[in-house]
Amino acid sequence: MINFKRETILKFVFLISLISIFSAYFIEYILGHQPCNLCLIERVPYVLSIVFILLFFILKKNEKFVTLLLILTFIFSFLISFYHLGIEQGFFKESVVCSTNNAAEIYTKEQLLEKLPERTISCKDVTFKIFGFSLTTINIFISLIIITFLLKNFNSNEKNFK
What we know:
This protein is mostly helical and 162 residues long. The protein has helices at residues 6-30, 37-59, 63-89, 96-99, 109-115, 135-156; strands spanning 129-130, 133-134.
């Protein structure tokens, strides 16, 4: 594998994270495909990575710590996406996360009647595909690629970290 500078890898992860978040919002708000609750959770690692990398470039310190946080963040992304793919393919049953919009809210019976026509998006329903792959499947590939680059970068440059 090609050896890149540490900052180049962080810029790559930052760019991929930005593209992923903008794409998710474009698909949701411009194209009109509603995400399920797990799809919304799958966005969190990308937002976190943007924050971590911005903080690193502003403060210019703790690169090793930031890299480790990013590795853990994208491992979480991979695991959530893998679980979501399992639900899409019927290997796992939908959890409570998939079936509720906001479990913390308490409704009166009138509010419940108003909410009945609203459609809750199921985690097993794939409403948008790119080249025949669900966005969850694409997220698995992206997470694995980012983890691979970060681990390779971390292991090959460990002695050079600040």
